[in-house]
Design goal:
Length: 699
Amino acid sequence: MQEIPKGANVSLTALSEDAGAVVVSLGWSSASGAGDADVSVLLLDENGKVRDENDFYFYNNPAAADGSVQLLGKVPTDNGDEDRISVDLTAVPEGVARIVVAASRYAGARFGDLDDLRMTVADRSGEPLVGYSIDDAGVETAFIFGELYRRGEEWKFRAVGQGYETGLAGLATDFGIPVLEDSEDSEGPEEPEATAPEEPPAQGPGEAVAAAQAPAGAAPVAETDAAPAAAPAPAPAEAAAPAAVPAQTRGRSPRTTRKKVTLPKVAKKSLAENESWSQARLFPVPSLKSDREREVRATSVLLSVMAQVPEFGRRLTAGFGAPAGRMQTFTEVSLPHGDTPRRPDGVIRVERAGKLWTALVETKTNGNPLKAEQVQAYMDIAARRGYEAVITLSNDVALEGRPMVEVKVDGRRKHKVSLWHLSWAEVAHQAQMLIRHEGVGNAAHAWLLQELLEYLRHEQSGCHGFQNMGAAWVPVRKGIEDETLGLGDARTVEVVESWERLIRQVCLRLGGELGQKALPVQRARRGSDPQARRVAAADRLCADGKLAAELRVDGTSSVIAVSADLRTSKVRTSVDVPAPEGAYPLVMVKRLLKLLDGAPADLHVESLLEAGPGAGAGAGPGSGPRGTLERLRPEPGDLLPADGSAVVGFRLSLLKGMGSTRGNTESGFIRSVDDAVERFYHGVVAQLGPVEGRGGRRG
């Protein structure tokens, strides 16, 4: 991969023969784990302006109808998050001269608070072509990372690195997106006591949704091949009139020409005489007798729905480098391979502008592992036949820096084949996001996705995602209980990897239910070795007997901590709530308890105290008084320290018994963690509402 400095440009065609479609990635990390930004893409004409508002793509308007741009969303990395964007350069309209890739922060957060800001561009096969690291971010609240632009018949990439102190409104104004004047004062009268901010009223079409300063001095990047001079972040105009961010912004639905169809969350009342009656399903599963039957049925069902529901098929394949186009899927295809033909479980073909993209599919169900020799054979076949990808599909969840199967790649072959993995949990997550939250083109497509989801959830389908902590789980747990487990035991690393897979799956399930992304939080710096991090976590497991993780739901600033104590057999979920500045101590305690009126009575509430003068640098808050919600409701003053120490926040925690088995049964460990996170989010985090959020929907 070629590294370029700020202002430099490079031809994508010169870097790859397969640059007709690219995947752009924006990454960053945050020491607090709560740092985030919203990615946006703008299509500009020769004048450096959008042709209309439909040339602006963001989290709530994620894809172009022609397939030229699609926001693939956030994916967790070992050191933070990474936002990925698929750009099919062959489908970009002729009137578009530049594609600007930007990001913006909210609630006054600045890009200087993030670490490891970076943009990379990969070709259709996933091979990284060019990278650009940003090390001079400061007070900017919006940032142009880079741009793709035409030069004759080729596309080039330029590292821009231009920031705006005026946020998304300043960036949008520069590129011709209408910014509406705020017609009403959004702030209410000042109150004598500090309270949590109230949830803003719903906005109608064309109304302002957030106030921002107009830009002062920010100019579009010059449309030349020469490296532009580094543009300083525009200074805010002190007397500028407040303006609102564009109509398609946080909290607003994009203007669309066709209504999206979603299914109601509450099913209609059943007409069955009793619960023993089973509703007829499009994809029946009770007759499945063997793992082979499950694999064949699951592959055929999934590939059929992918071909019939374009939004779903595109959602699953865009991240694998597939173009947007006409998709057909096949099963039981025989392909030559030495003396014995091979039959992959499925084949996906996408046609775009007369060119074919092909992927072979290898499926496993019921927790069966992928076989390296099978995958290797399909990689060899794909390379010989000029196919682009091999996709493995199983209950297992992929980890960063840890391949699902080890395969050898012949470096002498000119044609490269990409190997990708998809978990059944991810398939179910994407189906649920479409039919419950984002919508599809018509009612028949929504019904097909619902039938697919019912199939995947059936106990006989074998498509339930990660559901076994592995063979090392029982001996490691026993070794911790009787204190015989030693540092360096390789089995502890296996348990840490299984725990990481479990947390990623918990995020998928929670995010699918809420309609918002939920991601694991990684506090290690970008570029650190994943395996070294897992070994360190394994050593901590040996020392204190705990598995720990953090996750965050997009739309909130809360970081939910999850820990499993193998010595006490308890799962703890917790979140820290900052105290409002300037509030009277007793008032803020009463306010918190009022917000938690619907929370479980056994919720533990602990006050967090300001670190003393002798505390070292980076020391966290100290522990103060604590108690259960049931005990504190009649006596809120019990949360305040007797010595008058300053309260800087509160820690809310729930404890749950930990399952005794390694699997996903009712008494299993995986089920207990899943249930603990779900109960904590709905019972506690969702009760906090706008106190913890930044405008996101309540769960």
